[in-house]
Amino acid sequence: MQSQRAQSNLISSAQLESYEADGYLHLDRFVGDAALSALQTAADEFVEISKHMTESDKVLDLEPDHSATAPRIRRLNSPVDRHEVFRHFALEGEAAELACAILGGPARYHHSKLNYKWSDGGEEVKWHQDIQFWPHTDFSPLTIGVYLDDVDNSMGPMGVLPGSHKGQLYDQYESNGNWVGSMRATDVANLDLDQMVWLTGCAGSVTVHNCCMIHGSVPNDSTKPRPLLLQTYSRADSYPIAHIGANGVTGALSGAVVGGTSQQCVTVEGRQILGAPDWSRSGAPTIFGSQHDKG
């Protein structure tokens, strides 16, 4: 990965100020041609795999009318864990560099997904906020999206409501207590949807949105799929809260720190905790081993 000084040149101070104020960025043609081509090829490989499937599994989420001759994929789950091209892009490549530049230092990777949003009615994503799906110890998490094909208004581009990341965090349960992952109609009715910004763009363009941003997309009514590769990061000193939502089921590489190292430090109720090393993969030593076995 580039040095931190080089990363800071990826975006301007004005763009950083815009992100802080509005909660999103749109970076036209951000991904280089070679990286974009590799991502497109990797995405196409999973379309071919899907042709041999008749129902969804843990890797690919298929629409009900998917078939070998007319594939219709909703999502590739955790592409970072499925293909080296996606892993490199998210943990070492341009997405990782951009996350570090926006967050101002090392970043903690959380999860990834590839939403294909298939042609001729590919499903809408209702208005929602992300942080309720995977709460963290702060509101630094952001999601970087990459359009793998040109996207116009007919293809169901993502829409964001500028400034909404600073407002209310909405209940995304139905009144009967069922989780639906979208805002209630009564809350949506109070939004000024005329202020929604629709993030169209050419292949290789990048979107960035804060975890508290109200966003969604309408069905894809065009004749082409709208593949959007998404990867989520937080500051390195931000941690997902276990046992809520998707935290803990986000992939083997979730929690990896990119662009540096973690100081294992977290602040709770104004008190700073310098925590022990991350033993999630190696296993924790006993207190006796830590205190007495010095090697």
Notes on the protein architecture:
With 295 residues, the chain is an alpha+beta fold. The protein has a single domain (4-263), classed as Jelly Rolls (Sandwich), CATH 2.60.120.620. The protein is 20% helix and 21% strand. The protein is built from 7 helices and 14 strands. The strands form 3 sheets. Strands 1, 2, 3, 4, 6, 9, 11 and 12 form an 8-stranded antiparallel β-sheet that branches. Residues 2-7 have low confidence and may be disordered.
Briefly, what is this?
The chain has 295 residues and is an alpha+beta fold.
Q: Which SSEs are present, and which pair or pack?
A:
Blueprint: H1 4-7, H2 13-22, E1 24-27, H3 33-50, E2 60-62, E3 73-77, H4 84-91, H5 94-103, E4 107-115, E5 125-128, E6 142-147, E7 158-160, H6 185-188, E8 197-198, E9 206-210, E10 215-217, E11 228-235, E12 257-258, E13 265-268, E14 271-274, H7 287-292
Antiparallel strand pairs: 1-9, 2-3, 3-4, 4-11, 4-12, 5-10, 6-9, 6-11, 7-8, 7-10, 13-14
Q: Give the biggest beta sheet.
A: 8 strands, antiparallel
| Gyration radius, rounded | 20 Å
Q: What's the CATH class label?
A: Mainly Beta
Low-confidence stretches: 2-7
Principal-axis shape equals globular
Summed over residues and divided by their number, the pLDDT gives a mean of: 92
The SS-based structural class is alpha+beta
Q: Level of helix content?
A: 10-25%
Under CATH, the topology can be stated as Jelly Rolls
CATH architecture: Sandwich
Relevant CATH superfamily: q2cbj1_9rhob like domain
